[in-house]
Design a protein that fits this description.
It is a single chain. The chain is mainly alpha-helical. It has 6 helices and no strands. It folds into 2 domains: about 50 residues; about 110 residues, no CATH class. About 5% of the residues have low confidence.
Length: about 180
């Protein structure tokens, strides 16, 4: 598995967004509770509590291709379980020349990346607590359909694979753009 480098600015943007969410959450809490305390004090207290909670809470799952073993192996194992248990039996028709599928999809980094993103969206958008009743529809329209359009065409990552036949030779070389490599790799 190649080592990847994530631009520092991406983490800074994420931290800025988390801080903004905490700030807005505190403001909403103040407005909805009609707090008797000074709004500035309550905001500062909530922000400090939010920072501590954010550090204690599990972070959002990272992009799978950025994980190192054993975290990568654990995430891939869970992804395989979802793909083979939910996606394949529920959504994939018999492979054809126009709708490819490789039974060794986990050997294709592009497929791993796309299917992992699809799985993360599925987890969020099938939970009524986070998405309400329209989440599954949004998942189908915004995530499943575009993902399958990218993975299954005859020019997609499974282009060299045929029904029951996995072709190793057609995979891209192990080199990745320098922006994805870690220093010293």
């Amino acid at each position: 598995m190649p080592d990847f480098e994530v631009p520092v600015g991406l983490f800074q943007d994420l931290e800025d967004l988390k801080a903004e969410v905490i700030r807005l959450s505190a403001q909403v809490k103040i407005l909805t509770e009609g707090a008797d305390t000074d709004a500035g004090e309550a905001f500062a207290d909530d922000e400090e509590a939010g920072d501590a909670e954010a550090e204690d809470e599990a972070q959002f799952p990272p992009f799978i291709l950025l994980l190192d073993p054993p975290a990568y192996d654990d995430e891939l194992r869970a992804l395989i379980e979802w793909v083979e248990g939910v996606l394949v039996p529920g959504y994939l028709a018999e492979p054809s020349s126009d709708a490819r599928w490789c039974h060794m999809w986990f050997e294709h980094p592009v497929a791993i990346a796309r299917l992992h993103a699809l799985w993360l969206a599925w987890q969020e958008l099938t939970d009524p607590a986070t998405c309400g009743y329209t989440g599954p529809s949004v998942w189908h329209r915004d995530h499943l359909d575009p993902c399958m359009r990218e993975l299954r065409p005859s020019t997609g990552p499974f282009a060299g694979c045929t029904k029951g036949e996995h072709q190793v030779d057609h995979r891209m070389p192990g080199m990745v753009p320098s922006a994805w490599r870690r220093e010293g790799a």
